[in-house]
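Holo model, zinc ion. Inputs:
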Amino acid sequence: MLGKPGGVPCYCMSLHPLPLYSRHRALAAGGTPQTSPGGSPRRRKRLTPSPRNGDPPVTCRYYLPSRCFSASSFFFCRIGHRRAALGAYIFEEHRAGPARRCSFRPQHSMSDYTCSQTMRDFLRELPKCEHHVHLEGTLEPDLLFPLAKRNNVSLPADFPSSAEALHERYNRFADLADFLHFYYIGTNVLLLEQDFFDLAWAYFQRAAAQGLRHAEMFFDPQSHTTRGVALDAVVGGFRRACERAETELGVTSKLIMCLLRHLPVPECLATVQSAQPFFESGTVQGLGLDSAERPFPPELFTECYEQARRFQPELRLTAHAGEEGPASYVTTALDLLGAQRIDHGVRCVEDAALVARLASSDTLLTVCPLSNVRLQVVQHVRELPLQKLLDAGVPFSLNSDDPAYFGGYVLDNYVAVQQAFGWSRQTWARVAGAAVRGSWCDDKRKTELLDQIERVVAKYEAIAD
Ligand SMILES: [Zn+2]
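Output:
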């Protein structure tokens, strides 16, 4: 059974042609992708409709295989189209051609190594630093409902009526449009300073319970200011949660403001201008670049980074690069933006000279294993070049990216890596240590965390696995 005429069939267990997404329709008609119903386009990777490497322009006329959107991997299989997209823009190139067997396979059920209870305990206790988590991606159903009620935000009539029901619903997204439908309803409940505080505080509590000790967190001001929410409310709420986390949970943190690279550069520059007081005061300590890597290479944002650095010479700089984009994006982020670390960056291994450079300069990569699987960067965690990076001496940290949507918080990512690589405790101590050393906290805090790692490793040395 095939899709409609001209469609590409999906052979992943069964065939369920779905209606075309509206964006596909718009593109196929030569139109322009529109902003999502929630207002602000979603910060994301892989959102782009761009032809790449000389590929033909997008002309999507085909159907999407619904069986490829399971709870464990609700993105696309690869059947003759390029890859899935997620976010405000849904673009996919479904190429005509002979039917091929779908390459989709369940992800999380495929463990190469067991992770014993002792190892889980060890990983939980291991002091962890997280450098790649988008605060907007931490909004859990348990918080969404109270915020909607408090802000008198009406939820759609067909919206699940409880957090439990919504959790359950998140486990069975039918497709990307389905996911986005829920995502934007979630974003819309964030209006007041207290909402942003509650969002970040909920993240801190969850992650601290998993052994988080230091977090450097992204936020996307453009996702909120385009809805009329003041930047003061966003930063003020997040900052207050950071202070409480340090006092009550012992978790130190920093805020990194990200630019949505799929938006026009002048808009991003205006966002940098509006954040001047926060840069100057040190309330926001870093600048990042997220959303679709293609076709928005780092060099487009050179002026934004230069302007931000003029406001605050001590500002820390990072950028998403080398996840979807090629290794050259990592190089240009380093050379032209002055990035001091790279978010994702896993495609650096395609360039041996770049790997050597990252190793010799101790440039941290903030890798997100579960996110990479969910977004089909790799089919399985084991395919990530983590061992290769270790062997080459490239430092990296393990991070949750958007934990409310992508299957887990920081410890869940550690466990998934353990199940894929079966590392020793000493190797884990090395990984955790690299995360500490690559953090932007001061030397005193780094020494504290490194000492804590030593103590946890010593404690578990006497415990058989
Ligand atoms: Zn990210």
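The chain has one domain: 117-460. Residues 231-249 form the longest helix (19 residues).
Archived with the compound record.
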